[in-house]
């Protein structure tokens, strides 16, 4: 694709995929328009950067569809003075989007090569307010800090509360819970020290976080 083709594909992605999926917040649309998704896609799939599909990254992991990324961002509604936590850096694209919306992003990735690749892409883009770390956060992430928004980019077969207490009061947590073919996107808001409200947003399906806990099932 030429650069002109990329701009046309980006426009079509927003108008034909993102807006029809009820993403109408102009802040989110502006971030999606001006964050170069094609620079975060593996070279072999660069021509598919704006397609309505999950793009393979390696390690049996994928990038979310653009419309799902945009809906996640709109649901969390990060503000310029807020701290964000991302579980699953992947390519770094969503990290870049969060960095344009929030004051600072901490992103945790289990695969070291993903972290290194994402860091290189973010550095080329000039992102300075995102810190990447390697770790297994499938059961939660407790670094002694609280976050205003938490985005979990892989699904959880079963809902657990490993991320709940890492939220500030008023903080929002995005999760996708369940097993395929249909999973549920949830927005969990901490409204008091020991109370969280849960909103069901939409149905979707993505791959689970590596090491996501699940109840062992036995069959006779």
Largest sheet, described in full?
Answer: 7 strands, mixed
Low-confidence stretches: none
- Sheet with the most strands: spatial strand order: 5-4-3-6-7-8-9
How much of the residues is beta strand, in percent? 25-35%
Task: List SSEs in N-to-C order.
Answer: HHEEHEHEHEEEEE
Distance between the termini: 54 Å
CATH class: Alpha Beta
Give the mean pLDDT: 95
Number of helices in the DSSP assignment: 5
Descriptive report:
The protein is α/β, with parallel strands linked by helices and 220 residues long. It is built from 5 helices and 9 strands. Helix 1 (3-18) packs across helix 3. The longest helix has 16 residues, at 3-18. It is globular.
Quick structural overview:
The protein is α/β, with parallel strands linked by helices and 220 residues long.
List the helices and strands and how they pair.
Layout: H1 3-18, H2 26-34, E1 55-58, E2 61-63, H3 66-76, E3 83-87, H4 93-101, E4 104-109, H5 112-125, E5 130-134, E6 147-152, E7 167-177, E8 183-192, E9 195-204
Parallel strand pairs: 3-4, 3-6, 4-5, 6-7
Antiparallel strand pairs: 1-2, 7-8, 8-9
Helix pairs in contact: 1-3
């Amino acid at each position: 694709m030429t650069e002109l083709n990329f701009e046309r594909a980006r426009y079509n992605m927003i108008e034909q995929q993102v807006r029809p999926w009820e993403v109408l917040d102009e802040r989110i649309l502006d971030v999606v328009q001006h964050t170069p998704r094609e620079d975060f896609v593996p070279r072999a799939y660069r021509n598919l950067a704006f397609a309505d599909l999950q793009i393979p990254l390696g390690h049996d992991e994928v990038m979310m569809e653009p419309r799902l990324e945009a809906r996640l961002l709109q649901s969390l509604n990060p503000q310029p003075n807020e701290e964000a936590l991302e579980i699953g850096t992947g390519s770094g694209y969503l990290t870049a989007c969060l960095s344009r919306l929030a004051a600072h992003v901490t992103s945790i990735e289990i695969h070291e090569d993903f972290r290194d690749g994402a860091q290189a892409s973010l550095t080329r883009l000039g992102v300075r307010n995102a810190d990447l770390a390697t770790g297994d956060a499938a059961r939660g992430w407790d670094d002694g800090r609280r976050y205003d928004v938490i985005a979990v980019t892989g699904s959880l077969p079963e809902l657990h509360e490993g991320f709940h207490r890492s939220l500030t009061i008023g903080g929002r947590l995005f999760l996708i819970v369940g097993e395929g073919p249909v999973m549920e996107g949830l927005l969990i808001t901490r409204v008091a020290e020991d109370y969280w409200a849960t909103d069901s947003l939409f149905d979707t399906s993505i791959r689970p976080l590596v090491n996501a806990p699940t109840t062992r099932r036995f069959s006779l």
